[in-house]
Amino acid sequence: MALYEHVFLARQDLAQAQVDALAEAATKIVEENQGKVTKTETWGLRSLAYRIAKNRKAHYVMLHIDAPAGVVAELERQTAINEDVIRYMTIRVDEHEQGPSAMMRRGERDRDGRRDGRGDRGDRGDRGDRGDRGDRGDRPRREDREVA
């Protein structure tokens, strides 16, 4: 059987129990068709890059699936019908990632206080006047420009 990762985005106005019910329904579809879901991750309510069907946020859920291709086709058909799911994507993978996914590790890193990968920069202090940037030429300063 082939390995797949199936991620779907559920509407922002759903309760967490309803999102869990959607994940259970997807698991049931896979298992009824001789496949199995090896892992389910709920990434929580996250902001979208752009608005989708009047939603600015969505609940993200990922399933690791071990099933034949026909099962995935049925899962995608049922997911497309569901009005609570605003987007979904299924990809075939060579192997499933062991341990928590990158999204879950990102959440752990955020809780530790390191929001970005830049590390601890410490106190940067007063930068003062940085001086002239030679590559900018003789452009007039913003306050010197006339408003057109």
Span of the ends, CA to CA:
66 Å
Strand content: 25-35%
Order of helices and strands: EHEEHEH
Q: Mean of the pLDDT scores? A: 83
Q: What is the count of β-strands?
A: 4
Low-pLDDT sequence parts: none
- The total of helices stands at 3
What is the SS-derived class?
A: alpha+beta
Shape: elongated
What quaternary form is this?
Answer: single chain
Biggest sheet, spatial arrangement of strands? 2-3-1-4
Determine the fraction of residues in helical runs and give it as a percent range: 25-40%
State Rg: 23 Å
Function: Binds together with bS18 to 16S ribosomal RNA.
Protein name: Small ribosomal subunit protein bS6
Keywords: Ribonucleoprotein, Ribosomal protein, RNA-binding, rRNA-binding
Pfam families: Ribosomal_S6
Overall description:
With about 150 residues, the chain is of the alpha+beta class. It contains 3 helices and 4 strands; from the N terminus they run βαββαβα. It has helices at about 15-30, 70-80, 100-110, and strands at about 1-10, 35-50, 55-65, 85-95. The chain has a 4-stranded antiparallel β-sheet with strand order 2-3-1-4, covered by helices on one side. β2 (about 35-50) and β3 (about 55-65) form a beta hairpin.
Which keywords apply here?
about 150 residues; alpha+beta; four-stranded antiparallel β-sheet; 3 helices; 4 strands; about 25% helix; elongated
